[in-house]
Amino acid sequence: MTHAQIQEVGNSLISDEHTELLMQVAAHVGRKLAYQYPTENAEDIASEVTTQAIAEWKHNAAQLAKAANYGRSEYEVLFFLLSRRANEYCGKRHYAYMLENPQAAVYTPREVRALLKEFYFNPDAWETPSKDTEHGVAVDAKSLWVNLADLKSALERVSDRVHETILAAFGPEDLNLPEPDKRRVSDAVGAVTRELNRHLNPQLTSHEGPGRRKAMPTETAVYITHKQGV
Predict the structure, then answer these.
(1) How many Cβ atoms sit within 10 Å of the Cβ of residue 189?
(2) 6, exposed or middle or buried, with CB in 10 Å at 0-12, 13-18, 19+?
(3) End-to-end Cα, the chain, rounded Å
(4) Minimal CA–CA distance to 118: which of 138, 98, 132?
(5) Ordered per-residue pLDDT tens for the chain, 230 residues
(6) Of 108, 220, 114, 104, nearest to 162 (Cα)?
(7) Which residues contact residue 163 at a Cβ distance below 8 angstroms, ignoring those fewer than 6 apart?
(8) Measured distance CA(13)–CA(57) in Å, rounded
(9) What is the pTM of this model?
(10) In 3-state terms, what secondary structure has residue 147?
């Protein structure tokens, strides 16, 4: 929404300062949630949370007035409020999308993180019979399944830096790799998620582009080959 549209819909109850703040925060929330939910559009998310924020502005304004009491800025408080609405909105739409498109497999970074942590580097996962290649993990009280071969393919197509970060964060401890910071891990998981979704749904977009992996690092290949008993 534009500044004028917000003012019109909000019946001038929202000050110019808060209108600008709302536009900035909504755009930020839209980008963040679109990153987490590949099937959603950042502008659509921003528009939805803006509409909801305007409808609940008296409540939101009261919370912003207490920002100092929380030890937070108005930006941080509004970001929290809009993020909560955006997560609910995107979660419902993601669930509906999966029901309407049963053949589509679209994973979120949170789901891929759980799969990497619980299964990909778990030796037992690779020792199951070849006909049983899918493994599940509970995420948000829901069962999530993935074919390890698809996840492996996604990891082979990301950059060396991303792959090394994943290996350091979730790989076997005997590699003795330094633990990467949380932001770097989050970015790496996001990259793997995008590549997994592109691998399963070519219509989404192309691969990661220049610098993508053409082969696994030696230590990973040796580790997985050993665990598979090859």
Answers:
(1) 25
(2) buried
(3) 57
(4) 138
(5) 555 555 554 445 788 889 899 999 999 999 988 887 878 899 999 999 999 999 898 899 999 999 989 899 999 999 999 999 998 898 888 777 766 776 666 788 888 888 888 777 776 665 544 444 455 444 554 555 667 778 888 889 999 999 999 999 998 887 788 889 999 999 999 999 988 888 777 665 543 433 333 333 434 433 433 344 43
(6) 220
(7) 155, 213, 216, 217, 220
(8) 8
(9) 0.51
(10) strand
Buried residues in 50-83 as b, exposed as e (16+ CB within 10 A)? bebbbeebeebeebbeeeeeeeeebeebbbebbb
Instruction: Give residue limits of the domains in the chain.
Output: 3-100, 109-228
Cα distance between residue 222 and residue 230, in whole Å: 10
Contact assessment for residue 195 and residue 208, using Cβ atoms and an 8 Å cutoff: yes
The Cα–Cα gap between 212 and 160 comes to 7
Long-range contacts of 135-142 (CB under 8 A, 24+ apart): 138/114, 139/110, 139/111, 139/114, 140/110
Q: Is 77 in contact with 65 (CB distance < 8 Å)?
A: no
Which tokens is 133 given?
């290649």
What is the rounded distance in angstroms from the CA atom of residue 52 to the CA atom of residue 201? Answer: 32
